[in-house]
Design a protein that fits this description.
Length: 294
């Protein structure tokens, strides 16, 4: 291990520090997730979604599975066993020790049920999909139909899902020509499997994407000219998107952060000509939905 170079990102380093700071060889997965969620309220850490047992992070789960594969922890059903002897050899110095130990001191001795009750009371949004509460404490937003668009470039899969839930989006229309990504959670198979668990329909319409050979070779102005001509030949697909937009809150999804850099804005403008709906984009810098067509 000492001769192996281990590259960890900052979230993984904080998580390993949390596991060792518990000073307990065994801990439940539920408790690790809830302590991590509380740590997120104090410092930048994982993003969380309201899931079956309160706040949950798919990205964090991925990292825990990686830790398990490396032998740093052992996961046995709902328990995590920490291998201190291996973890202490890793480069895991962090800048958030005060916040981490504050969370440990305040909450590590609280049992899982009371910890979850505390979180549900303080953060009612995370009761939304819980199987443990009969009446959710979070009010569902009434969302007007519009042509919503979003780019996931600087979003985690957890923040992406939470944004959709908060806005009460019912359908994701993925308009990538090839719905694959190096970013965890944004591949077709992942989205198709997990978005329905949050009552969000996932539809991929590759016909409304741009093939890679054109994206990489055409200058920007020529690319948009090509795309407008392509849309003229995709009336059935355009009608399908228009119907979804008019029926319930739906969002056009692609990669680029800024809509002006993405074909989704050109698509949204064409849909607007068919529906007369406003265009509303999620601005990931301001973390809010902003109307684009004033």
């Amino acid at each position: 291990m000492e001769n192996i170079k281990v590259v960890l990102n900052w979230k993984q380093k904080i998580l390993l520090n949390l596991l060792t700071a518990l000073d307990n060889e065994r801990c439940s997965r539920l408790k690790i997730f809830k302590l991590s969620f509380l740590l997120t309220q104090k410092t930048n850490f994982y993003d969380f979604v309201p899931y079956k047992y309160g706040p949950y992070s798919f990205e964090m789960d991925k990292d825990l599975r990686m830790f398990n594969n490396n032998g740093w922890i052992n996961m046995d059903k709902n328990l995590i066993y920490t291998n201190y002897n291996l973890i202490k050899l890793l480069p895991i110095e962090i800048d958030h020790k005060y916040e981490l130990h504050d969370i440990i001191n305040k909450f590590s001795n609280i049992n899982e049920k009371n910890l979850l009750d505390l979180i549900y009371e303080s953060y009612p949004f995370y009761t939304k999909n819980s199987v443990l509460v009969k009446e959710h404490k979070s009010k569902e937003q009434v969302t007007p139909v519009a042509i919503y668009t979003i780019g996931y470039q600087n979003l985690s899969i957890d923040s992406f899902i939470s944004i959709l839930i908060e806005k009460n989006i019912k359908t994701v229309l993925d308009v990538r020509n090839k719905p694959f990504s190096y970013k965890y959670g944004f591949n077709y198979s992942w989205l198709k499997k997990y978005l329905p668990e949050f009552n969000i329909e996932y539809i991929n319409i590759p016909e409304l994407g741009i093939e890679e050979k054109y994206r990489k070779t055409f200058p920007r102005e020529k690319l948009w000219e090509y795309y407008y001509a392509l849309l003229d030949m995709k009336k059935l697909c355009l009608n399908r998107v228009s119907d979804s937009m008019l029926r319930q809150p739906s969002v056009i999804m692609c990669y680029e952060m800024f809509p002006e850099d993405c074909h989704r804005l050109r698509l949204a403008e064409r849909i607007q000509s068919l529906t007369n709906l406003p265009i509303v984009n999620f601005n990931t810098e301001k973390k809010q939905w902003i109307r684009l067509d004033y």
